[in-house]
UniProtKB/TrEMBL annotation:
NCBIfam families assigned: sigma70-ECF
Top-rank taxon, per record: Bacteria
InterPro entries: RNA_pol_sigma-70-like, RNA_pol_sigma-70_dom, RNA_pol_sigma70_r2, RNA_pol_sigma70_r4_t2, RNA_pol_sigma_r2, RNA_pol_sigma_r3/r4-like, WH-like_DNA-bd_sf
Limits of the RNA polymerase sigma factor 70 region 4 type domain: 105-149
Keywords: Sigma factor, Transcription, Transcription regulation
Span of domain RNA polymerase sigma-70 region: 13-77
The protein, known as: ECF RNA polymerase sigma factor SigR
Family indicated by similarity: Belongs to the sigma-70 factor family. ECF subfamily.
Natural source organism: Sutcliffiella rhizosphaerae
UniProt lineage: Bacteria, Bacillati, Bacillota, Bacilli, Bacillales
Keyword hit for Transcription regulation: yes
Length: 157
């Protein structure tokens, strides 16, 4: 059985599927497309020949590939009108559900930064590596997104 960073494939799927689905849903706003993207990420993992240094390297790689697959999705002809947020997304924690609709009003790159920073706990430097951006750019975008979210939330109340 093939292993990556000391984990078997089924262990990787059990450990990271929820995270990858959340990333893909946040980007595509479509649960079925998100599931397809995550499946494609795992297929890419199976073709991966280069070893991972450790489990955090593997997790970062999985998230980065998920973001890249989401970008590919938007470039493809498969993109249809997105569906509204529905009950099928109940896998997301309750505290996330309160903010989730507002996050969907952000641009995809802004959603990615917010998700990685607040929900996955990555630093701005790590986000810069994952999204191939300069650290200062990530920091300034994060500040702008906070202001934008504050405005959106204040308008809604």
């Amino acid at each position: 059985m093939k292993t990556f960073a000391g984990l078997r494939v089924h262990e990787i799927v059990q450990t990271y599927s929820d995270t990858l689905i959340r990333v893909a849903v946040q980007q595509t706003k479509n649960m079925s497309e998100a599931e397809d993207i995550v499946q494609d990420v795992y297929m890419t993992l199976m073709r991966q020949k280069k070893p991972f240094d450790n489990e955090s390297h593997l997790k970062a790689w999985l998230i980065k590939v998920t973001f890249n697959k989401c970008k590919d999705y938007f470039k493809s002809s498969r993109v249809k009108k997105t569906i509204p947020i529905t009950e099928e997304m109940t896998f997301i924690a309750k505290e996330e559900q309160m903010v989730l609709p507002e996050i969907f009003e952000l641009e995809p790159q802004e959603r990615a930064i917010v998700y990685l920073y607040y929900y996955e706990g990555y630093t701005t430097a790590e986000i810069g590596d994952l999204l191939e951006m300069k650290v200062n750019t990530v920091g300034s975008k994060l500040r702008r997104v906070r202001l934008k979210l504050r405005t959106i939330l204040e308008e809604g109340s």
